[in-house]
Amino acid sequence: MYTGVKGIGGIFFKSPDPQKTKDWYATHLGLKTDAYGTCFGWRNLDDPTKKGYTQWSVISNDRTDHIPENQSFMINYRVENIETLVEQLSQHGVIIMDEITSYDYGKFVHILDEDGLTLELWEPNDEVFETYISGLTR
Length: 138
Known about the structure:
With 138 residues, the protein is α/β, with parallel strands linked by helices. The protein has a single domain, classed as 2,3-Dihydroxybiphenyl 1,2-Dioxygenase, domain 1, CATH 3.10.180. It has helices at 18-29, 82-91, 126-132; strands spanning 5-15, 38-43, 51-60, 73-79, 101-103, 106-112, 118-124, 136-137. β2 (38-43) and β3 (51-60) form a beta hairpin.
């Protein structure tokens, strides 16, 4: 049994002019943006004392370090026990694109879905991630 996805960690999409796009969303939809976009904060349903975040980011069309060249967007899924999940996915033939990378704010890995889209899996450390946030939309 897969340990599976626990929520959406982020939505990342490309734009020819990321700042102009962020400004439009700030002006017309009230997003509080920073250099990376914005975060939406929420509470864990099982333990409301725990906070979580969903990142919304716009990046330049010419950047391929975060979103593959053949995609205009990428979804980041929040997971638990990323090592176990990657092992299970691999055993079921899911293509794992890279090694798990660790940062103080969480662990990441990229996989391919059935349609060949790159997805990002994130095992977050929300307490540390929170310290990086300057754009928070409430």
